[in-house]
Amino acid sequence: TIVVIHSVDPLIPESIFALLPVVAVVWPDIPGQESGNGLAYILYGTSSPSGKLPFTIAKQRSDYGTAVKDGNDQYPEGLFIDYRHFDKNSIVPRYEFGFGLSHTTFAYSNLSISNLSTAAPSKGLAPGGLKALYNIAATVSATITNNGTVEGKEVAQLCISLPSSAPESPPKQLRGFSKLNLNGKATVDVRREDLSFWDVGSRSWVLRKGNFEVAVGARPRDERPIGTVES
Q1: CA gap 44, 86 in Å, rounded
Q2: For the Fibronectin type III-like domain, which residue ranges apply (predicted)?
Q3: pLDDT class for 70, splitting at 50, 70, 90?
Q4: Mean of per-residue pLDDT scores for the chain
Q5: Most buried of the four, 42, 56, 103, 134, by CB within 10 Å?
């Protein structure tokens, strides 16, 4: 049995897996007019899926650690929502954020990280904040190789961990991604904002000294070669 789920939000599928001999799950979100053809292409191998989950699918609702509330919400969870909450509390989900299979597999190699830029930050404002936040601080790249015989696309995801000198922060944070067809090099520019955190006391973005752990993989929990960039 192959289960097809049309949903824009995560749901708990444990009861489905308990009742049926499920061998696969296809999650196409909201169906459009080509939904039938698209599903047939995927199920019969004409096309290889390459989508990634934009949220975590838990094994039980309480694993999310938060819920919709009436009235004022003080957001006590802070930055620790979805995959950041699961990583902080070492909770094993059914399917993690960024997860997605295809009819082939990909290998990651040759992780390359440039030195942190020493150029003076830009001055002034830009739409969305300070211009300096959008300065390129470093460039990260990795070689992606299709291991199989089926044509497919891969979404390489860049995650960064802040140094110990920064306040409590999520273990990993998605900071960029690149979608590749077949083999190639995924290259992602890292902005100053990607390495910074919002300091409530000074009401400003702060980039602390230390080693930033950098990883490029198929999803945040993917175990791929890890490098560092030093500030």
Answers
A1: 34
A2: 154-220
A3: confident
A4: 90
A5: 56
